[in-house]
Amino acid sequence: MFIDNFPALEGERAGLRAMGARRLLLLGGIGLILTGMFFGDIFAVYTLHQNAAQVGANLEAAANAALSGSRAAVLTNFVNVGSFLENRGTKVDTHVHMIDFGYLALLLAILQPWVGLAESSKKKIAWTFLVGAWLLPVGVYLIHYVGLARSPLKAIGWASIAADFGGLLVLLATLAYLIGLVVHFRGGGVGRSDELLNDRSLEGRMLFAGGLTLILLGFFHGSYYAATDLYKHEAQDYTLLAQISAGAAVGVRMVVNDALSRYGQLQGAKAVNIAAHAHSIEFGLLTIMMAFFQPYVSLRAAWKRRWAAVLLVGSLMLPVCVLLEMKLGLVAGGAADFAGMLVVLALLAMWIGILRYTGGLDAAASSRSAPGVQE
Amino acid sequence: MSGSQRLLIIGGVALAVWGMSYGLWYAVFAEHQALDNIGGSLAGSFAAAADRNPVRMESSLQQYREAKYVYDRQVDVHGHWIGLAMLLIVLGIGFDRVNFAERFKLMLALDLLVGAAVFPLGVFLQTMSHGPLPRAIAIVGSGLVIAGLVGCAVGVVAGRSTDISAA
């Protein structure tokens, strides 16, 4: 009876069977994206700016040490800069890889009907993918803390080895699905349809059109940045560092301080442009993927539309506010963090809707298989 | 599933596998060395400034510049190959919403696939040559992707107009 409330067709029910490959990849994928986004928001609020300040302070200290002719102090400060940059870099990599693996998991979930392999094999591959997709970001996160402790290698520690092994698992799983797709299409299984992709609900269309628009905006911005600023920024990076070291070598503090200040601003300008470009395209991909999964979101139609709107507003607002950070400072930064939370909330609501849907399917399946219940 | 959809999906998953293989190779064999080179050369230039040694300072800075240039592009190549691969798969799945004739959609799919492969390839070639050819390849590749995306957007809007007028 409960299942009658769901707009599911038989094909979808079969495609989302309990602990099947599609369900594993769907729920695991959204879980990865949510964790990655939540981690990114925490990182942005509590670590990113503080870390950037520490890098700047140590670079300044290194420049001052060069001014006073203290080679040892220069090297000490650069060790600190390296440590702070590693801390920042591994956290950004954790955030990015977790979300991207989540996206890939969602895409592979959609493609499952066209993977010409046995369901048991598809399930094993899905588990392999998910284990690798968690292992890589967790390994990358630990690189800064584990370092080279007890490592058999000179430059790569155990955390890096674990991360690389996770990447290998994801790679092999994706390759296996690629072989499955080729097997299916070569076997003439072209006509198989999936009702999931035939959905043309209002929220699905909103998300699809909005996602395509976000991707286009991200591409235009990336092209504009590459054409106008990328090479200029790279040249400035070198010129300013040259000014700092040359100023230090001849003992002119004013030149060093001026170049240090402009170097900090340059790093900020580069970071916000790259982040706006990447987030616009990634959120565009996410909203299109969520458009495909709307039939699985078991919420009232009005709420599905509201959450679709929240996802779109957050997805547009975040890259715009990130771009404005250079002009408006912390106000724009706070608004970008808020937009990130909107995206996380909308995604969480859709995930809960999908969990309700799968729960309904399982309840119906178990009631059908119970003694005395007729099909 | 149409031929254009199959081209985008198979091409997209293959490009993702390629991009991941490149990333794995890079992480294991090149990234740590590149980061050590960047950090070491920059520290070396400041240390040379402290020693009042302008020749070594300049050569260290040049080394830093080259290492940073190559590192930024190698990371970009990995990210763009996989990002564009996911875009191809997404578009392949939703390509039935693009309301053009299949023959034109096949051309659109081919344009997107070639652009997605060639754009990061142009960026990768910049790590080997600072000449204009790699940049031109990257520009052509990104132009193909943008043109394909605009085509898809027009096709989706055309589909909606047809739906509305039919209703």
The main β sheet of chain A shows up as: none
Low-confidence blocks of residues of chain B: none
What is the straight-line distance between the termini of chain B?
26 Å
Rg of chain A computed from alpha carbons, rounded to a whole number of angstroms: 25 Å
Radius of gyration of chain B: 22 Å
Number of strands of chain B: 0
Walkthrough of the structure:
The complex is a heterodimer of chains A (375) and B (167). Chain A has 375 residues and is mainly α. Chain A has 2 domains: 1-198, no CATH class; 199-375. Helix content of chain A is 82%, strand content 0%. Chain A is built from 9 helices and no strands. Chain A has helices at 10-15, 21-67, 71-111, 119-146, 158-186, 202-250, 253-292, 301-328, 330-369. In chain A, helix 2 packs parallel to helix 6, helix 6 (202-250) packs parallel to helix 8 (301-328) and helix 7 packs antiparallel against helix 8. Chain A is globular. The two termini of chain A are 13 Å apart. Chain B has one domain (3-159). The mean pLDDT of chain B is 90. Chain B has 5 helices and no strands.
Using brief descriptors, characterize the structure shown.
heterodimer, A: 375 residues, mainly alpha, 2 domains, 9 helices, 82% helix, 0% strand, disordered N terminus, B: 167 residues, 5 helices, elongated
